[in-house]
Specification:
The chain has one domain. It is built from 4 helices and no strands. Helix 2 packs antiparallel against helix 3, helix 2 runs parallel beside helix 4 and helix 3 runs antiparallel to helix 4.
Length: about 100
């Protein structure tokens, strides 16, 4: 008799977690992380990644967090090769503004 490890279900997350509203930073971090998954990998979707990136920036609002800034910067780096796409270019410009403002506070 051969023993085999139980097969774990594959989990693919396409939407941010539904967290409490007062978890602004956590929501922004998680949304940017999901966007990064869409920016690279086997199922790359730069337009979806930029859409989620905009959503992460919307969530972050006036929040100035180094971790959120780092996550947005990482997403922008991952998407930079798709800058010819209008949705991606829009996100990259907005991400630059967010990170620049965060650095000056």
């Amino acid at each position: 008799m051969t023993w085999a490890a139980p097969r774990m279900p594959s989990i693919t997350r396409t939407k941010p977690l539904d967290l409490r509203e007062d978890s602004v930073r956590t929501n922004a971090l998680h949304t940017a992380l999901i966007a990064s998954v869409h920016a690279t990998g086997a199922s790359t979707d730069p337009e979806r990644a930029s859409q989620l990136g905009h959503h992460a920036l919307d969530i972050a609002g006036n929040l100035r967090s180094r971790r959120v800034g780092d996550r947005i910067t990482d997403l922008a780096r991952r998407l930079s090769s798709y800058r010819s796409s209008s949705p991606v270019a829009g996100f990259l410009a907005r991400a630059h503004d967010y990170v620049s403002l965060s650095a000056h506070r």
